[in-house]
Specification:
Helix content is 29%, strand content 27%. It is built from 6 helices and 8 strands; from the N terminus they run αββααβββββαβαα. The structure holds zinc ion.
Amino acid sequence: MLLQIMTVGHPALRTPAMPIPSGDIGTSELQRLISLMRDTMRSASGVGLAAPQIGEPIELIVIEDRPEYIDRVGAEKVAERQRYPFSFRALINLQLTTLAGPSIDFFEGCLSLPGYLAAVPRSLSVRVEAFDENGERVVLEANGWLSRILQHEIDHLNGIMYTDRMDPRTFMSKQLYERYWKDMPVETIRTGVIA
Ligand code: ZN
């Protein structure tokens, strides 16, 4: 069974999530929701899914970056994005701290806005404090692509879409990004002119 992913325009994507009471963490009901979110994310070939995207206004995200996803991206892009595989994890009641460092522009998409991409500035490094599905405290310091994924998913918990943060001149269909722009620097793409 898969869950339905809400698309942009659905009010669930604009509703801030509530923390999960500690007594509910580790229950079979929450474990079941986490497995369904995992299956739904994998079925959509996503690297992250936040509970508001499936209509649940609770502070829960799932993330995973699989080697086969990374193999589809060129080696140069993988290095530039500092993208490494990491295994599935569920994170609950997250607190995000942006660490000092540059803000980096890369293209990203969202399962709630399928078929589109835009360049979004994100902090290179973040620290996330959360709980795992068993209620154990987790502290993550993340750089590169994982930092971007965490910022994107935590934004969903606050009712924020990447379109709120993107450079609007770079918003485009995935198909035309692949056709015209995929190997160009964001600075060039922003001009809209192929040099
Ligand atoms: Zn998203």
